[in-house]
Design brief:
Elements (H helix, E strand, L loop, with lengths): L23 H10 L4 E3 H8 L3 H10 L10 H17 L9 H4 L2 E3 H19 L12 H18 L8 H16 L2 H39 L3
Antiparallel strand pairs: 1-2
Helix pairs in contact: 1-6, 2-3, 3-4, 3-8, 4-7, 7-8, 7-9, 8-9
Protein name: Exopolysaccharide biosynthesis protein
Pfam families: ExoD (PF06055)
Organism: Chelatococcus sambhunathii
Length: 223
Amino acid sequence: MTHFADPPGAAADPGVPPPGKRGFSEVLRDLAASDVERVSVGSILHAFGDRAFGALLLVFALPNALPMPPGTSAILGAPIVFIAFQLMIGRPTLWLPRFITERSLARADFATLANKIDPWVHKLERLLKPRLPLLTTPFADRLTGLACFVLSLILALPIPFGNMPPAIALTAFALGMIESDGAAIAAGWLGTIASFVILGLFAGVVSAGLQYFGGPLLRLFGM
C-alpha cells in the first residue's frame, strides 16, 4: 500500500495524539476528545500518519453514506476529488495545499460527527484484516484511485438518493486501504458498479422525461 507523507504546514495541533497503529475509531475518538478548540484537516493527517489517505477519505466519504442534510455531498466530495486524483496518478506522497490542511471544524462539531460515524466504523473494523494482497499492490492502488476519482465526481451530482451508493463504495475503498484488506477493496468495486448502474438509470429517466415533455413545452411556447 502506498504511504503518504504529511503535507507542509500540517503540524500537529496541541493535544492531538501522535501517529500509531490503533484502529480508526480509536484515533477518531482521541481527536474528538482533544483539548483543542478546532480540529483541522492537517491534524487528522498527522494523527493517522501513513494511513492518512485512507483515513481522510473515510472521514469525508462515510458521512455521505448516512442520512445527512442536502448539499453535504457537494462540500465533502470536493476534497475527495483532489486526493483521489493524486492516488490515481501514482504520487508517492500525498500533498495537500495549505487552504485544505487549515480547514477545520470546531471540536464540538467534530465530536458530533465522530459520534455519528463511530458506531458504524467500530462494527466494520471487527470484520477487517489484511487479505487478498493482489488488490492492495501499488498498481491496484492506482486503479482504486481512478475509481475513487470517478465516484467523487458522481457524489457531487444532484442525483436524488444517488449519493449513498458512491459514498458506500468510497467508504469500502477507504477501509480497505487503512487495513490492507483486499476484500473491502473488492466490495468497493462492487459499489462502484452499482453507482454506474444507478447513474445510467437516472440519465435514462431524465432523457425520457425530456423527450416526453420537451415537445409539448416547445409547442406551447411556439418554439
